[in-house]
Amino acid sequence: MARVLVAGIGNIFRGDDGFGVEVVRRLADERLGEDVDVGDFGIRGVHLAFEMASGKYTKVILVDATSRGEPPGTLYAIEPDAADGDAGADAHSLTPAAVLAWVHRIGGDCGRVLLVGCEPASVDESIGLSPPVQSAVDGAVKMVRELVVEGA
């Protein structure tokens, strides 16, 4: 049976880097299906890598602030490439690609991986999302819902 993990990533003490955590906080109260796990992994990238490598998921949806040079609040749905990650990175600053590299390094297979990202305005030390990123949270929640059922 297909099982999906929706994982929020980010540091709530670094402004818009808390985007993924806020999105999964909203999703945690929704019924996305019996076969959908929603979790806040925050800055625990190694824990996320081991969860992804467990073999119980056919799809993983990572939610994170993702800088790609667009205006703040721009949403993305992309498939990250593990080849771009650094498996030796600091465990508290693992990017989605680095988490994938860790999964592969420990011999795991996490199925299809998607990233719902949002262009941050600032990831400086602060608490709370900037207005454009806060405004993008509802759209990200909708995007995650759609990706959960896509291909199910």
Describe the structure.
It is globular, with a radius of gyration of 14 Å. It contains four helices and five strands. It has 152 residues and is α/β, with parallel strands linked by helices. It has helices at residues 19-27, 45-52, 96-105, 131-149; strands at 4-9, 36-42, 59-65, 75-78, 112-118. 30% of the residues lie in helices and 20% in strands. The protein has a five-stranded mixed sheet with strand order 2-1-3-5-4, with helices on both faces. Mean pLDDT is 82; it is low at 82-92. Helix 2 (45-52) packs across helix 3. The chain has one domain (4-15, 22-149): Rossmann fold. The chain starts with a strand and ends with a helix.
Task: Furnish the topology, listing elements before pairings.
Layout: E1 4-9, H1 19-27, E2 36-42, H2 45-52, E3 59-65, E4 75-78, H3 96-105, E5 112-118, H4 131-149
Parallel strand pairs: 1-2, 1-3, 3-5
Antiparallel strand pairs: 4-5
Helix pairs in contact: 1-4, 2-3
Keywords:
152 residues, alpha/beta, Rossmann fold, 4 helices, 5 strands
Short description:
By secondary structure, the protein is of the alpha/beta class.
CATH class: Alpha Beta
- CATH domain fold name: Rossmann fold
Find the CATH superfamily.
HybD-like
Describe the global form.
Answer: globular
Query: Which H/E pattern describes the elements?
Result: EHEHEEHEH
Mind telling me which CATH architecture this is? 3-Layer(aba) Sandwich
Strand order, largest beta sheet: 2-1-3-5-4
Helix content: 25-40%
- Distinct helical segment count: 4
How many structurally independent domains?
1
Find the count of extended strands (DSSP E, 2+ residues). Answer: 5
Structural class of the secondary structure composition? alpha/beta
Radius of gyration: 14 Å
Task: Pick out the low-confidence regions.
Answer: 82-92
Mean of residue pLDDT values? 82
| Strand-residue proportion | 15-25%
Distance between the termini: 10 Å
- Main sheet makeup: 5 strands, mixed
